[in-house]
Amino acid sequence: GIAFFVKLLSSEDKESKEHASGALQSLASDSDQNKSMIAQLGGIPPLIALLTEGTTEMQVNAAGTLQSLAVDPAHQVAIVEADGVPALVSLLRRGTAMGQERAAGVLQNLLS
């Protein structure tokens, strides 16, 4: 489940990271319970790492997951404390159009 995908975010295997980031994005958009589990299981720091270190697909997936998580005030704090803002700004400047859109969405949610 979610714990498995969170663990895969730190894998050395690029394909595993891509699948895990995509699965977590889908799970985060499904329910508040899934969002909480992703955060509780330590998913926020590796998602933030993917914003700058991942492939374009990983960046989009990670930003999409963070966008869903950032509607919760507790998750907003966790994203900021894990240095998410600089990584999001970097993606906003250098990412693909979809990556930029998702990064802007996370930042917008952090401000609301």
Give an account of the 3D structure:
82% of the residues lie in helices and 0% in strands. It is mainly α and 112 residues long. The chain is globular and about 30 Å long. Helix 2 runs parallel beside helix 5 and helix 5 runs parallel beside helix 8. It has 8 helices and no strands. The chain starts with a helix and ends with a helix.
Features:
0% strand, mainly alpha, 82% helix, 112 residues
Brief write-up:
By secondary structure, the chain is mainly α.
Note the topology.
Layout: H1 2-8, H2 14-30, H3 32-40, H4 44-53, H5 56-69, H6 73-81, H7 84-94, H8 97-111
Helix pairs in contact: 1-2, 2-3, 2-5, 4-5, 4-7, 5-8, 7-8
Q: Profile the largest sheet.
A: none
Q: SSE order, as H and E?
A: HHHHHHHH
Shape: globular
Average pLDDT figure? 96
- DSSP summary: helix tally: 8
End-to-end separation? 30 Å
Number of strands: 0
Class derived from helix and strand content: mainly alpha
Strand portion: under 5%
Low-confidence stretches: none
Compute the gyration radius: what is it?
12 Å
| Helical content class | over 70%
